[in-house]
Amino acid sequence: MLPDRHRIVALRSQTAILGSLWEKHDCILCSISPKSDAQKLELHTKDAIA
To answer: This protein's superkingdom (predicted)?
Structure first.
């Protein structure tokens, strides 16, 4: 597990890669409670990895 600071940087770079996909992102959970792109990505990658 990466330290938080490094994990956030990794998430930001992943978010940049997924940028165009992410602009169209409208998951119901994310729209109910607004989150930053990094938080959304973390939420969804956590589910995908688990």
So the answer is: Eukaryota
Distance CA 25, CA 6 (A): 24
**Residue 22 has which token pair?**
């992410």
> Looking at residue 24, what DSSP letter applies?
T
Break the chain into its structural domains and give their ranges. Answer: 4-49
The confidence band for 50, taking pLDDT boundaries of 50, 70 and 90, is very low
How far, in Å, CA of 33 to CA of 8, rounded?
19
**Mean pLDDT, residues 21-29:** 58
Q: Are 8 and 38 in contact (CB under 8 A)?
A: yes
Q: Are 41 and 14 in contact (CB under 8 A)?
A: yes
